[in-house]
């Protein structure tokens, strides 16, 4: 019969039922191999980990969209101001040329 390669032990909250713990209370789960050597942790908080992962990814997407919109808006404003400045210079030069020809 084959033995399990890893063992999962609960460090906190092992003596309480899962439903009795309030959401968000931390629960550490340690994975060890057959000799008891440390292999990693799983399970940060009960009831909030998946929600927070979803929020984090959606927050990242929203931040990226806001940054892209801000960059595009800034570039558009700079281009518009440069265009309007160029148009204003052309109009001013035309007026000055007309005034000089009249004299």
Give a topology summary.
Elements (H helix, E strand, L loop, with lengths): L5 E5 L18 E5 L4 E5 L6 H54 L1
Antiparallel strand pairs: 1-2, 2-3
Explain what this protein looks like in three dimensions.
With 103 residues, the chain is an alpha+beta fold. The protein has 2 domains: 6-42, no CATH class; 48-103. Helices cover 52% and strands 15% of the residues. It is built from 1 helix and 3 strands, in the order E-E-E-H. It has one helix spanning 49-102, and strands at 6-10, 29-33, 38-42. The chain has a 3-stranded antiparallel sheet with strand order 1-2-3, with no helix packed on it. A hairpin with a 4-residue loop joins strand 2 (29-33) and strand 3. The chain is rod-shaped and about 100 Å long. Residues 13-20 have low confidence and may be disordered.
State the helicity in percent bands. 40-55%
The residue ranges in which pLDDT falls below 50 over 5 or more consecutive positions are: 13-20
Give the CA-based shape.
rod-shaped
Termini separation comes to 110 Å
In round numbers, the mean pLDDT is 70
How large is the share of residues in beta strands?
5-15%
Secondary-structure element pattern, one letter each = EEEH
Biased composition (Basic residues): 1-11
Keywords: Membrane, Transmembrane, Transmembrane helix
Transmembrane segments: 53-73, 79-99
Biased composition (Basic and acidic residues): 12-21
At a glance:
Keywords: Membrane, Transmembrane, Transmembrane helix. By secondary structure, the chain is α+β, with helices and mostly antiparallel strands.
